Amino acid sequence: MPFAYYDRLSPSRKKIYRLSDGIATLGIPRGQEHGAAVLRIDAALRADDRASVQRECQGLLDVLAAGYRVPKLRVRVLAKRPVDGYGELHGLYEPEEGRIPPRITVWMRTAQRQQVVAFKTFLRTVIHELCHHLDYELFALEETFHTEGFYKRESSLVVALLAQREAADERAPRP
After folding, report:
1. Rounded Cα–Cα distance for residues 73 and 100 (Å)
2. pLDDT at site 67
3. Domain around 163
């Protein structure tokens, strides 16, 4: 079932939308284990350490991009989410433009209360923006749309990463 804006798309954009909608899963690249990296992102976020959050997110996305065999992208983690007429902006994907490589920007604090964002919300935002990159680079879509398939791909990857995080946490030595 297409989202309401589908009816306003041109025929060529509707075709891209349908292609995107038809891709429902996105697994972790074969042989990759990210549980420890996801644990480090969680710990850095809880420590309110922006530089560490950025470094750990960059590491995770570098390995995922290599596994998917797509160009790397840069990650920028900023402090407080910006607000516009629609609410708080959680993340932003900027595709490659000329010599400027693609970039993801995410914010680690809410706009109103300036609280550190909940870990799962933050991880979902990072993966959401990665999925826009994968739409262009892995699936060769000319445009990236928020379709049901897009959200299913995002969710399937987040669930897999959280499962690896849980397994890594269970294996971690306890003091």
Report:
1. 10
2. 97
3. 32-171
